[in-house]
Structure formats: C-alpha cells, structure tokens
Design brief:
By secondary structure, this protein is mostly helical. Helix content is 77%, strand content 0%. It has a single domain, classed as Growth Hormone, Chain: A. The longest helix has 29 residues.
C-alpha cells in the first residue's frame, strides 16, 4: 500500500529506480564468469577486495559530495561509472582488465550507496509522511527485489541464447541507462545543494566533520557497526552459491534440450530468482513483526539464525535442498533486517547528514569485506568451501555471544 502524501508518483519512481538498478543480469553468474575465465578463488577474493577498497576510500567523500553538491548529481555520475565498468567486464580477457572493471564498479558503488536511501528519507520528511520509515523503505526496497527476480530469470535466457556469458554485462547497460534518465526526473528539492562550487579545503573539512559526527554518539556507533558487519557477511558469502552449485552438479536435468553445463546455469538463475521472490515478501512485511516482537530483538535473532544457517550449509553442502533453502534464508534474513537498520540510523541522524552517515556505514561494510573476502577465498581454495563455511559460521556464533546486543528501549 502506497502511503498518503501529495507526491505518490515519486514513491513509484523510487520503486522503479530500485527495480531497474537490480537488473544486473550478470549477478547470479559473476563468479561463474570469473571461474570460467581462469581465475582462482583467491584471485576472485582479491577482485572483491579491490572493489570494496575503492568503496572504502571514496565512500565518505561520496556522501559528503551528495550532501554538498546534490544527490541527483551524484547518482547520475555513479550510473555513468557503472556503465563503463560493464563495458570493461565485457571486454576483459585477463586479471588486469578485470581489476579495472571491478575498480570502476567500486566507484559506482561508492557514489550510489547511502545516497538514494538518504533521498527517500528526505522525501518522507519534506512531504510529512506519517508512516514509519521502515515500512516505506521496505516498500520501495521490495521493488528492488522484484527487479532481482526479473534479472535472474532474464539472465537465464540471455545466457542460453547469446554467444557468450559476457553478453550479460552488455545487456545490463540498457536498464542502467534508463535509470540514469529516471533520476533526472526526480524533483529538484531532492538535489538540495549546500555549495555550487568545489573547494577542496572545505570538502576535506566536511569529510572530517562527518566522521566526527558519526562517531560522536555511542548509540549511532553501535548501529553503524551492527548494520555494516552483517551486510559484509551477506555480501561476502552470497556469491559462493555459484561455485557450490557447480561443484554439486546436476542431479535432475530440467531441460533435456540443453547440456548439463547449461542446466547448471539454469539452476543458478532459478535459485537466485527464488531467493529474491521470498525477499519481496520479507521486505514488504518486515514491519509487521513489530506487532509481536520489538525491532531490537528481531535484529539479534536474525544474527543468530544466520550463523546457524551458515554452519548447517557447511555441514550439508552436498545436499541441493539444503543449499537452496540456506541461500533463500540468507536473503530473507537480510531483507528483514535492512528496513529496521535504515530506520534506526535515519532516526538517530540529522537530515542533512544522512547521506554522509549512511555512506560511512557502507564504508565500514567495505572495510570488513576487504579483510574477509581474500581470507574466505584462501580458505576455500586451500581447504574447501565446506571448511570455510563451518569455520565462519562458528565464528559468527562466537561474535553473537560477545558482541553488544541491540537492547529494547
């Protein structure tokens, strides 16, 4: 249900933005593409670290840029960077070209993350929308999940009927061009600028002030760490589903007219689509859980369930049903947590600092991934994915015991 306000059309635009942004047809097959291109798990981990290092370095400056020079302006720039990264991935034939493509992708991520969420919060404040931020953000985020479902299904057909898996990147340019045009139609008050000229000294000063602001309040510190650590775990582990499916192989051939390898790729796409389909339901209805349990308890319980699911996946990694269920649950857990975390951070942040604070949250996420991705890639290559999952799941259980808990007010 769309909340009552004077500009319902803009809420639909927020949803359409998320839908188009998630039409990353290559996402379910990114690690498959890396592996068939001859990269090792450790090299893939390095690529992920490169992307997240770029995000880490430029996350805070990008948030300050958005707050001072306009959020619309920044989003336009980020989509241009994404498009160039897709072109580079399409052309890549060696690790060095992949590094360039991943770096451009990282720049796009740095300039996007936090900015659009801040625009949604700004819209709600400007239009005096009374519904909870978690409910409205959950609604708009559900369109992103729908986009991911469409992306996964469409990706299957693109792979089966295109000359090469790399064409997934080429086709992904189309929705990103459409999203760029859509952003230009956003109302100008969402592009509010504190400056019209760039002065590096003032820009650097604003970066420092944003960091001080974010870490000056203990409650905000805990929220940022809670959100970023969980998101880092999700982003690092989700892509391991691709090599897991490749390792298991195909027990049941869904489409006899295609080869075993093609059927495996179909499986991967369908599993991603299933996970995103459940995510739509989870995102749109997460706020209803507060009728039965407070949001802080929800955050704690989801962390615990995630740790248990990772251990179970590791112990039963050769069971295709456990793999599918675990992967779907990871997405459901994330999409239950995300609306509550965004609302909590937004409610504890001044409106003109939200893009910067949310960017800092994404930056800390990236820092954790920079450390985590090569380690998990090395463990998977040196021992096995099973050992990596069980070890990491146990580590998360230990962290659940010792980390500060979200407490009820």
């Amino acid at each position: 249900m769309i909340p009552e306000c004077t500009d319902k059309k803009q809420i639909y635009k927020f949803g359409l933005y998320g839908l188009l942004k998630n039409l990353r047809f290559f996402e379910p097959y990114l690690w498959v593409y890396f592996l068939v291109s001859g990269l090792t798990f450790f090299e893939i981990g390095i690529l992920v670290a490169v992307r997240e290092a770029i995000v880490y370095i430029f996350e805070i400056p990008s948030g300050v840029f958005a707050d001072r020079f306009g959020k619309k302006n920044e989003l336009v720039l980020c989509f241009i960077l994404y498009i160039f990264s897709f072109i580079m991935f399409f052309l890549s034939s060696n690790i060095y070209m992949f590094v360039i493509g991943m770096a451009l992708y990282g720049f796009g991520e740095a300039f996007r993350s936090g900015t659009h969420k801040a625009m949604i919060m700004e819209f709600l404040d400007y239009n005096k929308v009374k519904e909870s931020k978690s409910r409205v953000y959950g609604l708009t985020r559900s369109y992103s999940n729908i986009g991911s479902v469409l992306s996964s299904i469409s990706g299957i057909f693109i792979i089966l009927f295109s000359p090469d898996i790399s064409y997934l990147f080429l086709v992904a340019i189309i929705p990103y061009l459409l999203d760029l045009v859509l952003i230009l139609t956003y109302p100008e008050y969402l592009n509010a600028k504190q400056d019209n000229s760039f002065v590096f000294k003032d820009f650097l000063k604003e970066n420092i002030l944003s960091i001080k602001y974010t870490f000056s309040t203990k409650k905000l510190n805990i929220l940022i760490l809670e959100s970023s650590s969980y998101h880092a775990v999700f982003k690092t582990l989700r892509d391991f589903i691709q090599p897991i499916i490749l390792a298991i192989g195909v027990y049941y051939v869904l489409f006899s007219q295609f080869s075993d390898d093609e059927n495996i790729l179909i499986y991967v796409g369908l599993i991603y689509a299933l996970a995103q389909l459940f995510s739509v339901f989870a995102t749109r209805n997460a706020y209803r859980l507060e009728k039965y349990i407070d949001s802080n308890s929800i955050l704690n319980i989801v962390w615990l369930l995630t740790a248990i699911s990772i251990v179970m996946l590791g112990l039963m990694i050769n069971n295709i049903y456990v793999v599918v269920i675990s992967f779907v649950l990871f997405y459901v857990y994330l999409n239950i947590r995300k609306p509550f975390m965004v609302e909590k951070i937004a409610n504890n942040t001044e409106s003109n600092k939200r893009a910067s604070v949310l960017s800092i949250e994404s930056q800390i996420t990236s820092l954790i991934i920079v450390i985590l991705a090569p380690i998990l890639g090395y463990l998977s290559e040196r021992y096995s994915i099973k050992v990596m999952l069980v070890s990491f799941g146990v580590f998360m259980l230990i962290m659940y015991i010792i980390k500060p808990k979200q407490k009820s007010a």
